């Protein structure tokens, strides 16, 4: 067994020594769990969005190529994104593993990442897929309202304020973010499902997929809290993945 590490909470845990990939639609709550897993194991929490912004801010060759593409509102080509991913996971802080949030998005990206992991001596990746009914997710996202003053988040369907469109904490006006409108969210969720369905099937065939019920309480989501039962499941999935040898044998649901 490798030497244990001490994450920020001071507790010693076994090293992760692998990539853990979190997949799930916008609003499913995967970001909170991904960050907590990274914190728990003392490894980086990675996203391609952060990588792009960092490369642009530093004026790297990759960032210089990506910046005009992003300014035009276009998708950055895989050729640039994958090079950023390669450079990032080869940095020293990724030696004992890392957590990817929302990447890969396609089977081609997943295959490239698998090749990179193999080249860098990592164990096979574990994939945690957050599953939620599209109608519930649409209701959750379109119902979000944020206080203009303190940033407190409500949901007019599941966690409404005591006074209509006013924050319980400071009385500030509540507003809906432009990208939370149904005409924006609906097509985004449909595009996500269409894009990731082959990816989910790919990881399921490899026996690397662990599915999580993302229909958690809206109170926990609004507060940015980690669901304890789900957290325990994810940690158990990490441990069980080390024993996975038969395709499909590690596919777990919660």
What does it look like?
The chain has 254 residues and is of the alpha/beta class. It is built from nine helices and nine strands. The chain has a domain at 18-43 and 96-132 and 185-253: P-loop containing nucleotide triphosphate hydrolases (Rossmann fold, 3-Layer(aba) Sandwich), CATH 3.40.50.300. Helix 2 packs across helix 3, helix 4 (78-89) packs parallel to helix 5 and helix 6 crosses helix 7. 30% of the residues are buried.
CATH T-level fold name of the domain at 18-43 and 96-132 and 185-253: Rossmann fold
Gyration radius over CA: 19 Å
The overall pLDDT, averaged over residues, is 81
In CATH's first tier, which class of the domain at 18-43 and 96-132 and 185-253 applies? Alpha Beta
Examine the secondary-structure arrangement and name the CATH architecture of the domain at 18-43 and 96-132 and 185-253: 3-Layer(aba) Sandwich
Beta-strand proportion: 5-15%
Q: Distance between the terminal alpha carbons, to the nearest Å?
A: 28 Å
Give the CATH superfamily of the domain at 18-43 and 96-132 and 185-253: P-loop containing nucleotide triphosphate hydrolases
Main β sheet profile: 6 strands, parallel
Order of helices and strands: EHEHHHEHEHEEEHEHHE
Please tally the helical runs, counting DSSP H or I stretches of 4 or more residues.
Answer: 9
In total, the number of strands is 9
Record the SSE blueprint.
Elements: E1 18-23, H1 30-41, E2 45-46, H2 48-58, H3 61-71, H4 78-89, E3 98-101, H5 107-119, E4 123-131, H6 134-142, E5 144-147, E6 153-155, E7 174-175, H7 182-206, E8 209-213, H8 218-223, H9 228-241, E9 252-253
Parallel strand pairs: 1-3, 1-4, 2-3, 4-8, 8-9
Antiparallel strand pairs: 5-6, 5-7
């Amino acid at each position: 067994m490798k030497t244990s590490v001490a994450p920020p909470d001071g507790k010693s845990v076994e090293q992760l020594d692998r990539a853990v990939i979190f997949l799930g639609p916008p609003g499913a709550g995967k970001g909170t769990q991904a960050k907590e897993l990274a914190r728990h194991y003392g490894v980086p929490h990675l996203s391609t969005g952060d990588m792009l912004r960092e490369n642009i801010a530093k004026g790297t060759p990759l960032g210089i190529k990506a910046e005009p593409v992003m300014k035009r509102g276009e998708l950055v080509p895989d050729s640039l994104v994958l090079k950023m991913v390669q450079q990032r996971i080869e940095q020293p802080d990724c030696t004992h593993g890392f957590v990817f949030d929302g990447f890969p998005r396609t089977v081609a990206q997943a295959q490239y990442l698998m090749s990179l992991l193999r080249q860098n001596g990592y164990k096979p990746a574990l994939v945690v897929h957050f599953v939620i009914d599209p109608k519930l997710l649409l209701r959750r996202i379109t119902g979000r309202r944020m206080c203009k003053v303190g940033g407190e988040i409500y949901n007019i369907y599941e966690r409404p304020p005591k006074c209509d469109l006013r924050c319980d904490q400071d009385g500030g006006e509540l507003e809906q973010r432009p990208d939370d409108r149904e005409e924006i969210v609906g097509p985004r969720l449909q595009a996500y499902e269409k894009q990731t369905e082959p990816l989910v099937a790919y990881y399921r065939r490899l026996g690397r997929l662990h599915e999580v019920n993302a229909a958690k309480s809206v109170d926990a989501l609004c507060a940015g809290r980690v669901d304890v039962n789900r957290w325990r499941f994810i940690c158990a999935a990490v441990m069980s993945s080390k024993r996975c040898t038969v395709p499909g044998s590690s596919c777990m649901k919660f």
